[in-house]
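How it folds:
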Amino acid sequence: MKNEHTQIRLIAVRALGQVRMIDNCPALIFALTDPNPTVVLEASIALQFVSRKTETPPVPEAKLVNGELDTSSYEYKQGIRQLYAYWSKWYRELRPDALLVPVHLE
């Protein structure tokens, strides 16, 4: 999940979601903070698949600026915070003693 190559992180997230094991959720929740919006989207999809939830917060959309996805906007970061909080709360309800990787969300 911390590999420098986006494609490797993307493949890892997809594989963890397809296994559909609750024990993979901390890694998927951590992936919600990935700098690449595609990885974030795949992590959200994987969490929906594992949890069997259909009503979840939307994944924020990064705006295209000068041909690159901009994830620095307040709205995008706020959306990531909400998504992270939602899935963290859900997982802690299932596993109260679970340790999630601490992340700093600006």
